[in-house]
Amino acid sequence: MLALAAVPVLMLLVLSSPAVAEDKSPQSANAAAGSAPSTEASKYVGAETCKTCHEELYNSWEKTPHWKTTLNKEGGPSHQGCEGCHGPGADHVAGGGDVSKIYTFKNASTKEINARCMNCHAGGPQHMNAINSVHTQNNVSCISCHSPHHAETKEALLKKAQPELCYSCHLQQKAQFEMPFHHRVNEGLIKCGDCHNPHGTVGPKQVRASSTQNAVCFGCHADKQGPFVFEHEPVKVEGCSSCHIPHGGANPHMLRVSNVNLLCLQCHTNSVPGGKTGAAPGAPSFHSQETFFKSCTLCHNQIHGSNFDATFFK
Ligand code: HEC
Ligand code: HEC
Ligand code: HEC
Ligand code: HEC
Ligand code: HEC
Ligand code: HEC
Ligand code: HEC
Ligand code: HEC
Ligand code: HEC
Ligand code: HEC
User: Fold this and answer.
1) What is the pLDDT of residue 283?
2) What is the largest CA-CA distance in the chain?
3) Is 218 helix (H, G, I), strand (E, B) or coil?
4) Nearest to 30, CA basis, from 92, 108, 89
5) Which of these, 107, 61, 66, lies nearest to 84 by C-alpha position?
6) Of 54, 60, 84, whose CA–CA distance to 71 is shortest?
7) How far apart are CA 43 and CA 163, in angstroms?
8) Is ligand 3 within 6 A of the CB of residue 148?
9) How would you label 211-242 residue by residue, b for 16+ Cβ within 10 Å and e otherwise?
10) What pTM was estimated for this model as a whole?
11) 296 alpha carbon to ligand 5 midpoint, in Å?
C-alpha cells in the first residue's frame, strides 16, 4: 500500500528539488500552517494512524520523551503525538501521503521553527529568553542542536554530545580548552552548559547567572563568594573575569597575565595613581620589585577576600 502511495509522492519530491523548494506555493502546508497548528479537531488523525505508513519513525519516536504528549488530554489533538509538531495530518493521509499537505521543517525560518517548538517549551527559566537569544538572532534554531528523530545522545535529544556539538560551530573556543590551564570540559568534568544557557540569558554572552554575572562561578567555587569582612574589591565589582580567563589560557590558574605581580600592578601602582579601578592603593614603597616581592600571593594569599586581615594575609 505504501509503495503505491509513494510513487506520485516521489515524483513530487523530485519536482520540489532545492532550486524551487524555496518557492512556497499557496497550497504548501508550511506556508499555510505557519507556526500555530490549527486547532480544528477533525483535521487530526492521531499518531497511531501515522504509524501505519511511518512505522520505523514511529517506533523510534515512541522511545523519546515526546511520546508523553499522547497523554496530554488538556492540550487536545493539536498538542499530541506526531501532529503536535507536524500539524494536522488528515489531508496528508487522505492524499495518500501528499507531502504538500503536512508541515515539514524543511526550508522553514528559525523564527518559525522555534515558534513551533515553543508552543510547548516556552515556559520555565531554561527557555524564557529563547525568542531573543544570541543563537536565535544568528539563525541557530532549536533543530540546529536538537533532533526529535535522529538524536545521537540520550541527553536532551541532541544531535551530538557536548562539547562536540558546540565545537562544530565554535572552533575558537575549542582552542581555548586545549590550552595548558583550562576548565576540564574536554575531559568531561564540566560542560559548556554548566556556565552557558544555549537557549539565551538576560545577561551578556549567554552566561548563566541569577543577578550578577559572577553567580555562575560561585555555583562551583562557593568558597570565593563570601561575604568576607574584608572584600577585595575587583572580585566583587569587576568579577572573576577581570583576573581569570574563564575557558583556559597559557598561565597557571588561568590568570590573564603570566606573572602575578604584573596582574596586581595593573591596578596597584603608584605611578598611575588610583590604578585601573580608581580606588586601588599603590603597593607600599618597601615592596621593592626584586624577585622576592614579585610573588604577591605568597604573602597576600587570601586574594579573593578575608575574614581576618585587611591586606589578605590570612
Ligand atoms: C518534537 C517534534 C516532532 C515530533 C513529535 C515528530 N516530528 Fe517528525 N520531524 C520533526 C523535525 C524537526 C523534523 C526534521 C528532521 C529532524 O530535525 O529530525 C522531522 C522530520 C520528519 C520526517 C521526514 C523524514 C525524516 O526522517 O526526517 C517524517 C516522515 C516525520 N518527521 C514524521 C513524523 C512522525 C510519523 C511522527 C510521529 C511518530 C513525528 N514525525 C513526530 C519534528 C517532530
Ligand atoms: C497513507 C500513508 C501515510 C500516512 C497514514 C501518513 N503518511 Fe506521512 N508520508 C507518506 C508518504 C508516502 C510520504 C513521502 C515519503 C516519505 O518521506 O516517507 C510521507 C511523508 C511525510 C513527511 C515528510 C515530508 C518531507 O518532505 O520529507 C512527514 C513530515 C510526514 N509524512 C508526516 C506524517 C504524519 C505526522 C502522519 C500522521 C498524521 C503521516 N505522515 C501519516 C505516507 C503517509
Ligand atoms: C506538543 C508539545 C511539544 C512540542 C510542539 C515540542 N515538544 Fe519537546 N517535549 C514535549 C514534552 C511533553 C516533553 C517531555 C517533558 C518531560 O519529560 O517532562 C518534551 C521534551 C523535549 C526535550 C527533552 C528531552 C529529554 O531528554 O529530556 C527536548 C530536547 C525537546 N522536547 C525538544 C523539542 C524541539 C526541538 C521541538 C520542536 C522541533 C519540540 N520539542 C516540540 C512537548 C513538546
Ligand atoms: C546551541 C544549541 C541549542 C539550541 C539552539 C537549542 N538547544 Fe535546547 N538544549 C541544548 C543543550 C546543550 C541542552 C542540554 C541541557 C543544557 O546543557 O542546558 C538542551 C536542553 C533542552 C531541553 C531539555 C532540558 C531542559 O532543561 O528543559 C529542551 C526541552 C530544549 N533544550 C528545547 C529547546 C528548544 C525548544 C529550542 C529552540 C527554542 C532549543 N532547545 C534550542 C542545546 C540547544
Ligand atoms: C567555567 C565556565 C564556562 C565554561 C565551562 C564555558 N564557558 Fe564560555 N564563557 C564563560 C564566560 C564567563 C564568558 C564571558 C567571557 C567574558 O565576558 O570575558 C564566556 C564566553 C563565551 C563565548 C563568547 C566569546 C568570548 O570568548 O567571549 C562563547 C562563544 C563561549 N563562551 C562558548 C563556550 C563553549 C562552546 C563552551 C564549551 C566548549 C564554553 N563556552 C564553556 C564561561 C564558560
Ligand atoms: C549551528 C552552529 C552553532 C552551534 C551548534 C552552537 N552555536 Fe553558539 N553561536 C553560534 C553563532 C552563529 C553565534 C553568534 C555569533 C558568535 O558570537 O559567534 C553563537 C553565539 C554563542 C554564544 C554567545 C557569544 C556572544 O558573543 O554573545 C555563546 C556563549 C555560545 N554560542 C555558546 C554555545 C554553546 C555552549 C553551544 C553548545 C551547547 C553552542 N554555542 C552551539 C552558532 C552555534
Ligand atoms: C584580583 C584578581 C582576582 C580576581 C578578581 C579573582 N581571582 Fe581567583 N585567583 C587570583 C590569583 C592571583 C590566583 C592565584 C593564587 C595563588 O597564586 O595562590 C587565583 C586563584 C584562583 C583559584 C585557584 C586557587 C584557589 O584559591 O582555589 C580559583 C578556583 C579562583 N581563583 C577562582 C576565582 C573566582 C571564582 C573568582 C570570582 C569570584 C576569582 N577567582 C576572582 C586572582 C583573582
Ligand atoms: C560546573 C562547575 C564549575 C563552574 C561553574 C566554574 N568552575 Fe572553575 N573549576 C571547576 C573545577 C572542577 C575546577 C578544578 C579544575 C581541575 O581540576 O581541572 C575549577 C578550577 C578553576 C580555577 C583554578 C585552576 C587552577 O589552576 O587552580 C579557576 C581560576 C577557576 N576554576 C575559575 C572559574 C571561574 C572564573 C568561573 C566562572 C566563570 C568558574 N571557575 C566556574 C568547576 C567549575
Ligand atoms: C582590577 C584591579 C585590581 C587588581 C587586578 C588587584 N587589585 Fe587589589 N585592590 C583593588 C581595589 C580597588 C582595592 C580596594 C581598595 C580599597 O578598598 O580602598 C584593592 C585592595 C587590595 C589590598 C588591600 C589594601 C588595603 O589597604 O585595604 C591588597 C593588599 C591588594 N588589593 C592586593 C592585591 C594583590 C596582591 C593583587 C594581585 C594578586 C591585586 N590586589 C589585584 C584593585 C585591584
Ligand atoms: C613578603 C611579603 C609580601 C609580598 C611578597 C608582597 N607584599 Fe604587599 N604587603 C606586605 C606587607 C607586610 C604590607 C603592609 C601590611 C600592613 O600595612 O598591614 C603589604 C601591603 C600591601 C598593600 C596595601 C597598601 C596600602 O596602602 O594599604 C598593597 C596594595 C600590596 N601590599 C600589594 C602588593 C603587591 C601588588 C605585591 C606583588 C607585586 C605584594 N604586595 C607583595 C607584604 C608583602
Assistant:
1) 84
2) 92
3) helix
4) 108
5) 66
6) 84
7) 41
8) yes
9) eebbebbbeeeeeebbebeeebebbbeeebee
10) 0.91
11) 28
What whole-number distance in Å separates Cα of residue 155 and Cα of residue 188?
Answer: 14
Ligand 7 near 296 CB (within 6 A): no
CA 135 – ligand 6 centroid, Å: 6
- H/E stretch holding 249 reads strand 248-249
All three cell numbers of 150, joined, read 535522529
pLDDT mean values, one per 10 residues, the chain (314 residues) = 38 35 38 60 94 97 95 90 96 96 94 94 86 94 97 93 97 96 96 95 85 76 92 90 95 94 87 54 79 86 95 92
As a 3-state breakdown, the chain gives helix, strand, coil percent values, each rounded to 5, of: 45, 5, 50
Place of cell 597575565: 257
**Domain boundaries of the chain, sorted by first residue:** 2-16+26-101, 110-206, 223-299
Task: Say how far apart CA 312 and CA 280 lie, in whole Å.
Answer: 14
| Residues 153, 166 contacting (CB under 8 angstroms) | no
Distance CA 265, CA 270 (A): 9
Write the DSSP symbol of residue 99: G
Ligand nearest to the CA of 145: 4
Q: How many CA atoms lie within 13 A of 95 on its CB side?
A: 14
Cell digits for 35?
Answer: 507556526
Residues 6+ apart with CB under 8 A from 306: 228, 229, 230, 312, 313, 314
- 280-298 pLDDT tens trace: 888 888 887 667 788 899 9
